[in-house]
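Please go through the protein record below and see whether the fold suits the sequence. Record follows.
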Amino acid sequence: MSRKFEEVTVTHLSNGEKVSLGIHTIKGSKPGPTLGISAAIHGDEIIGSEIIRRIYESINDEELSGTLLLLPVANPLAFEALSRNTPLDMNNLNRLFPGNENGWVSEQLAKSIVVNFLDQVDFYIDLHAGGAVPIVDYVYIQNAEEMSRAFDFPLLYRPADVYEGTTATYTTEKGIPSVTVEIGGGPNFQEHIDRGIKGINNCLKYLNMIPGDTVITSKQTVLSEIQIIRPKQGGMLVPEYSFDHVGKKIEGKQVLANIYNPKTFELLETIETPFEQNIVVLMRGLVGKVNAGDYGYMLGNLETAER
């Protein structure tokens, strides 16, 4: 059979229910590499799971060279709670790799993902999002710049420092070409799903796993400086810009949002752009509640960017 689904048991909850990983394998009719694609390692980043499902449905097994290994829900416990962190231990799974089979539930999940998924792939794509509220749009450049560019996003990010303990940190250290994609979130717009599917198909063409030429249509900007803005005050956030400003330029010091006390109507905080030449990477585009320390905005510095 060219397709297989395997449910890998990691552990059990106290009520006896299994904690498991669902891994799909699509084996093509021709020889080629194994590409692993994962999503929802943060449980509030669900758009990647739908992108993977649509890739699964659209792939022609007869035209595929090599193997696709798909992990659509990398953190099932956090997915169920629509939470960034694993509810049982409140750990961020994407800071715990390569994991520990004798550790916290999140560490056991990480170890199982390594053994049953990451150690089986030749190339790797990890799909992330802005979370349950914000929207984001960029691709990391790690150890596979051409493959990252093949995703055909207009914004890329070359970080000076990397987060330790991520899936991509693990695969990069093993010499596996890896791409981390940040796409959509919040309302999970159809356009972001379509762009995710297009990006993966473009990478499959780049790897010669499906027929066709890699086509890059975007004018790509590589950021080396991104500032994350987290509100210092909780309250009702009222944005000055809508979601359609993701990827857009904002010149000078501008107000991004105001945060009000919902009980007293007092203005608690004003969030402003940090650079003279800003580009919006992640944002909140709807009125809603925010807690101190939440992801609010990410702005790139265009003055230090590669065009």
About this structure: The helical segments are 47-58, 76-81, 105-116, 145-150, 167-173, 190-206. The chain has a mean pLDDT of 97. Residues 143 and 181 are 14 Å apart (CA to CA).
